[in-house]
Sequence to fold (505 residues):
Amino acid sequence: MKGAMTAAAMHRQYDEGVSAFRQHIANPAMRQKFNQDVDEFMRQCALGVWQADGGNVSPQHVEYYNGIYCKGNPVPTALYWELCTAVAEYPGFRPPVFFQRMREYDKAYHQKTARRFVDLLTLMLLLFAAADGAVSDREAGFVNACADALTALCDADGLASDKPKLDAGDFVTRRGEDKPGQAAAPAPAGKEEAASSSEPEPEPAESLEELLAELDGLCGLDRVKKDVRSLINLVKVRRLREEQELPVPPMSLHLVFMGNPGTGKTTVARLLARIYHAIGVLSKGQLVEVDRSGLVAGFVGQTAIKTSEVVQKALGGVLFIDEAYALTNQENANDFGKEAIEVLLKNMEDHRKDLIVIVAGYTELMGRFIHSNPGLESRFNKYFYFEDYTGDQLMEIFRSMCGKNGYTIGNEAEKYAEAYFAGLYEERDENFGNARDVRNVFERAVARQSDRVAALEAPTKEQLMELTVGDLREEEPEETHTPGFQHPAPDQAGARSPDPSEPRP
Fold:
């Protein structure tokens, strides 16, 4: 660990930072509570920083950990295996009790103690991150998430800030930069060129024309395709107006996707992220997909951390929240989903130039969700409606699945499948899964075909590829079989739609 900061130097910087902050605490009782709890709190945060970095603990980390003097103990004695266990089992960030007291004091006396503590926390966690001589992106993301959680509490209390918050991302050690506490070492002769040549070449940039062609290649979705093109045109014209120094009205690019499951919402969201990147709206163009469980935790403070971490991953791309309506619980006013929404709204404002949020779900439920919060209504004003696939479109999707996976459909099997999907669409209810139902049919047909072909002594290539009526048909279990009911013979399969009493694949 040559050139890395020693544990003694780390402790000196830690002690100086905490001591300097302590001088800003005017209230004696609050200062006493801070003195009692701050070391233990910071030790816990150090565990979170190292867990975020992959949990790879070294003797250097142990020295750093023991360098945080806890509860007046001048000689902490944590061992390597104990620290490894603690890092692996870190439960998540929780705001300290003394932080609540700071906010209460600041509200009463118009002070900025709580805001200053957020800055102290950021600096101390960055100090812990540098235990291995570098600050990683994941460590910086965790540090920012912790700071954002405390900042959100200050915002909720109406505590103003007199300066911009520290961004841990500014301290990330990049290739070729000096590591914290370490001088830059000259590259060995002849190694620089070899290193650069071994780096993977960046993927060629996708053109807008290629992406639109991919969009047009999707089955159905005519209304959505039109809406996407209108959105692209809107962005283009805004750019042209800016170039001509014409007024450009405020515009939100956040979207609401409304429709039943399996209608292509995630697929379109992923394409739209790449399109936004191609036209320069987003810097990266990745899609991060989550639902309520990916944002909401089970106790106060942790939801803010969890949500902020997801946002950090999505920066430069699209954050896609499926079944977003689950974040609002009308029956429980204290539900943590409300906390996730508030953190999202703040980040949408803070990162409005490089973050797009798409919320998706059932049409009726999404309408209620958007109207449940004025902040949501103001930021989500563009709606894409995803209609159910028709029987013909379901059949087209099925053919596409077969072709992409090297399967063919016999004539009789195709007639059977067309009739089946037509009936599936006509008889659809609230459980209709659209393309998901098609995938289920395909996967079960492949499984039955495998059972059939495996019994052949020497199957031909054609036999390995062909799906028959028997592969598509799912026989009803004997214990629930309807008396007198018979499945259609192969030559009659195309003459009827599936009986409602017949179980579907």
Summary: The longest strand covers residues 356-361.
